[in-house]
Design brief:
about 260 residues, alpha+beta, Deoxyribonuclease I, Chain A, six-stranded mixed β-sheet
Length: about 260
């Protein structure tokens, strides 16, 4: 079974670039997208209802064309949860989407970057806290929980190309990195780093303005976090660094059903 996760930086943009066909060619069982920057009604039929999938969309209601998440699935979910149930005010921009199935739950998240007026660092702190509470409640109900998406923070020095130069940059601040520590201490596993403990130079985001991707000056800020039980079922994880269409690359998790 396969879960495909990607910050598309605009779902309509990847369709125009021809990258949507490449997504479908992955034949994932579940496709999780972040930063879709659109409402369902703005999407083509091919994006709303690709053959073989059901699509669910959580778009920003406060600022159009901003943030947003989507989940496409080959299976009928038992439940779809839009936003953070106990902190709806913190998900005004469609950042969190959860699909619950018989045996497990999948959560896709687009975390605030902390650098803008609509998503400043204080808001980012509050979102991290509320998101963790949401995950803990899911873990109380399901032993198999998968969290994927753009967490907008690199956890350790090994996770970005220039850690010293970015030691005071939002996205690599000590307090943000400590939040990832809290997530892991709660019982979640960072699948990529757990299975690739010493691997360097594999990133998921590159700044477009500086053509950083050409030089592989990147950040690993897109994750799969899973519960221990789910981790025992994982067979592989891969960052598709050559996958074009966004300033992020997809991450793909495969597991035994």
């Amino acid at each position: 079974m396969k879960i495909f996760s990607w910050n598309v930086n605009g779902i309509r943009a990847i369709e125009r670039k021809g990258a949507w066909d490449a997504v479908l060619e992955q034949d994932a069982d579940i496709i999780c997208l972040q930063e879709i920057k659109a409402e369902k009604e703005q999407l083509s039929e091919a994006l709303q209802a690709p053959e073989g999938y059901q699509g669910f969309f959580h778009s920003s209601q406060e600022r159009k064309g901003y943030a947003g998440t989507a989940i496409y699935t080959k299976w009928e979910p038992q439940e779809v949860i839009f936003g953070l149930p106990r902190a709806k005010e913190l998900d005004r921009h469609g950042r969190t989407l959860t699909a619950v199935f018989d045996a497990f739950a999948v959560v896709t998240g687009y975390f605030p970057n902390g650098k803008s007026k609509t998503a400043n660092l204080d808001y980012k702190r509050s979102y991290y806290e509320a998101f963790l509470k949401h995950i803990e409640e899911l873990c109380d109900k399901y032993i198999n929980v998968v969290i994927c998406g753009d967490l907008n923070v690199a956890h350790a020095e090994i996770d970005l190309a220039r850690p010293k130069e970015n030691s005071k940059t939002i996205g690599f601040l000590p307090e943000e990195r400590a939040w990832i520590d809290r997530y892991l201490a709660s019982g979640l596993i960072d699948v990529w780093r757990e299975t690739n403990p010493d691997t360097t130079d594999v990133y998921t985001y590159w700044d477009q303005k500086t053509r950083a991707r050409d030089r592989n000056v990147g950040w690993r800020i897109d994750y799969f976090l899973v519960t221990h039980e789910m981790f025992t079922r994982v067979t592989s994880i891969e960052s598709l660094t050559e996958f074009a269409g966004s300033d992020h690359c997809p991450v793909v998790l495969e597991y035994v059903d």
